[in-house]
Amino acid sequence: MFALGSKVRRVKEARFIVGECAADRRSQAALMTCYASILRDVTDRKEVDFRISLSGRVFPFTMRRSDIFTLGEILHEQQYRLASYVPNNPTIIDAGANIGVTALWFLWQYPGATIHAFEPEPDNFRLLQANFGSHPQVVLNQAGLGAQVGRLQLHLGEHGAVHSFFGEGGRSLDVQVLTLADYVEKHQIACVDVLKLDVEGSELDVLKGLGEALSRVQVIVGEVHERVVDQRAFYEYLREHGFVVVRRIDFIDGEHEGVHGFEAVKQSARAVARP
Question: Are 211 and 185 in contact (CB under 8 A)?
């Protein structure tokens, strides 16, 4: 199922996730079952409970076995590691929060963060709520984000991380869509230190949904889904609104999946490269 190079990479990833992130032996065993499972079925939906330890902070976590891919991408590959300056207690908007792995990452990197997480798909949101529903630093919203308020058909992929408003056929759900312009106004968010985008093709729509409130955003990090998004229009929109792209992030499986990452910072903000 996996090529040799992919197997070697997966072994290195497993050593990190199981060896360095699992909080105890029970958690190590649970995570190992995930890696064993995806050798047979990359969409295994059986759920596991474990505890993740990140810089001394322990987080109880529940996920489907197939979500080990997402755990590896974010904690091991570090797809959302930022080069730009972020203050100690940032306000972060997590657009496309899935089950909360990115929230884990941001709380690891920025322990004082306040995270506003958005996830429209009910099963993902159920797990997101199990993981962070009682966490005082995470505000959960069961909704998608777009260019205007309304309802859209969310097309469901085989894996919980690839549901999208773009697609044809197959199963779909009618879900609520909000705009960030309304949200930041309602919650009186004067500054968004980090906007994270993992919205499976809705990247430009989410930015347009900010309207004039895009001026409150300092750093944007996320994915661009090349088969759906007009890349030229997307990056031009960022430039027109005062952002400089400081990094293009080539993911390990990005070329195959037709996706790459990016980091953009407001020109007036100070970008500091990490060592």
Answer: no
